Amino acid sequence: MNGKDSGSLGDVRGARGLFPATGKTAYFNTAAVGLASRALVAAYHSYVDDWAESGLDYVRGEAAGESARTAVAALMGADRGDVALIASVSAAAGLVAAQLGPGSRGQNVVIGEREYSSNHYPWRLLAKKGYEVRQVPFRNGGLEPEDVAECVDGGTVVVAFSGVQTATGHRSDLRAISAIARGVGAIVFVDGSQLVGALPVAGDLGAVDVLAVPDHKFLLNAGRGLGYCYLSREAQDRFVPLNAGWKAGRVPLESFFGPTMDLSPTASRFDNSISWLAAIGNEAALSVFDVFGADAVYGRNRELAEMLRASLSEAGWTPVDLPEANRSSIVSVPLGDREPVHLVAELKRRGIVCSARAGNLRLAIHFYNDEDDIARITSALSEL
Ligand SMILES: Cc1ncc(COP(=O)(O)O)c(C=O)c1O
After folding, report:
1. Is residue 47 part of a domain?
2. Distance from the alpha carbon of residue 118 to the mean position of ligand 1, in angstroms
3. Reported pTM
């Protein structure tokens, strides 16, 4: 993975050709689901054809899962031995929440007020175990470290938040929030759904205990079925692999029966059994990052997001005003009194795909977007 250390922006501008849907649509919906590459589609066709003709090759599926683990670890800047295959962000949060015993007086978890449910409900449910759940109000569509600091105290056991907020594109100051959490010994849980694959995260990984990401957005397999969960070594040592089965064994394909339990010495002891079909898709989908190098993808995303931001502002559709450090590849425009369902449908009628979330028109950039897409959405919005 990341065979190219620093790919060129010139090459990545041609990425569009690898994604058939870009021929017809101006696609700004990667924050919901990413587009399929030709490589993904070909891999699925070939695997399903073989399946029909000769039976499903699950060993091949397992190997694809390992290759996908390696690829996502590289995007995270992690050792592949520190990444578990866990189906969803909610499952990763649930795994962490389940590690906590009954809460004693004063113990609490701190989360963002408007976090996505997968990074909200698992913590909310800790109230049943006696933890106080503290929700930090959003400013500018996200968490500001000072506000987190007001909620964290010696009783805080977890601080959970999104690396990038899905509705607003606000990028969290991961290191600053982590320093507050770690100052009291709390676990730092980061939902990386709108971060990993879109923006560099490797430089911040040391500030994180658990980083979870599903496959269906910026990792480019909208068919979904696989998720990735980085666990720091300390987290691995501390947590019990509550869902361990054959897949958590040192050699999974030789771990079907007892009488002994030989768990993997790496984070794979936290693995869930995987969808082989999804693994085949993920391996292929992630190979596209290798074509250009992740740095080129991030550079292009930054360039296009800034262009989109400026173009929308000029057209009078002013995005959520974020300091540069809090910007991401999601650009959201507060809709005020405008009716979101009608607006999204009208844009779709014009071949522009995006979503409305929490009162914003949400436009997500990925490296298969281009300047024409930006011109198209800007001119459509100017007419509406
Ligand atoms: C911020 C965020 N977190 C998590 C998810 C997905 O959660 P899960 O993997 O639990 O379905 C999404 C979207 O699907 C999301 O936008």
Report:
1. no
2. 6
3. 0.96
